[in-house]
């Protein structure tokens, strides 16, 4: 909505607005492009105009969508899903992503899953077993091991830290 408002302010009509992506038909003048870029940066957004950066951004959007917006996020083959969505060979996509981001797509995916687990722990609505199932882990043990590997903490210890912080906030 923020991006759409900025586009309207600049009298730019997009042909597509999607998560992390806007398509505009035709070319914008350098002045209009510069003004748009300035307005977007003020709101924490940026224009991505080169093909590799756009591909990396699309990969991130696909992964985030899988992890944060869908139930049973890993019931699909991620490499096939990304490849199908972008219509490129997965090795090509993987090389571009790794070169640009300095980590593999798999590592980025794991990091996003762990961020989602942290969020779910904070909400305290699901058990670890339910989280493991929802995020496609084979077991609670697998989720716990991966969580500890990424954060250095067990999920239960992380939860106790969150509960402790919550208690302190309530006492204020």
Describe it for me?
By secondary structure, the protein is mainly alpha-helical. Helices cover 67% and strands 3% of the residues. It has helices at 2-9, 30-42, 51-69, 78-86, 90-101, 105-123, 128-134, 140-151, 155-171, and strands spanning 16-18, 21-23. The chain has a two-stranded antiparallel sheet with strand order 1-2. The longest helix is centred in the middle third of the chain and has 19 residues, at 51-69. The two termini are 35 Å apart. Residues 166-172 have low confidence and may be disordered.
In short:
This protein has two domains: 2-47; 52-171, Homeodomain-like (Arc Repressor Mutant, subunit A), CATH 1.10.10.60. It has nine helices and two strands, in the order H-E-E-H-H-H-H-H-H-H-H.
Descriptive terms for the model:
single chain, 172 residues, mainly alpha, Arc Repressor Mutant, subunit A, 2 domains, two-stranded antiparallel ribbon, 9 helices, 2 strands, 67% helix, disordered C terminus
């Amino acid at each position: 909505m923020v991006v759409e408002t900025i586009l309207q302010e600049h009298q730019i009509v997009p042909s597509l607005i999607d998560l992390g992506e806007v398509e505009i038909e035709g070319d914008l003048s350098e002045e209009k492009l510069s003004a748009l870029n300035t307005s977007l940066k003020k709101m924490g957004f940026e224009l991505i105009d080169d093909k590799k950066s756009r591909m990396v951004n699309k990969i991130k959007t696909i992964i985030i969508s899988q992890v944060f917006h869908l139930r049973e996020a890993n019931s699909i083959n991620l490499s096939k899903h990304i490849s199908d969505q972008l219509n490129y060979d997965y090795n090509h996509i993987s090389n571009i992503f790794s070169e640009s981001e300095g980590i593999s797509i798999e590592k980025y995916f794991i990091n996003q899953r762990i961020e989602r687990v942290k969020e779910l722990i904070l909400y305290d609505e699901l058990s670890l077993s339910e989280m493991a199932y929802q995020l496609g882990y084979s077991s609670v043990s697998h989720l716990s091991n991966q969580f500890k590997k990424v954060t250095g903490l067990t999920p239960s210890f992380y939860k106790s830290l969150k509960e402790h912080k919550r208690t302190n906030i309530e006492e204020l």
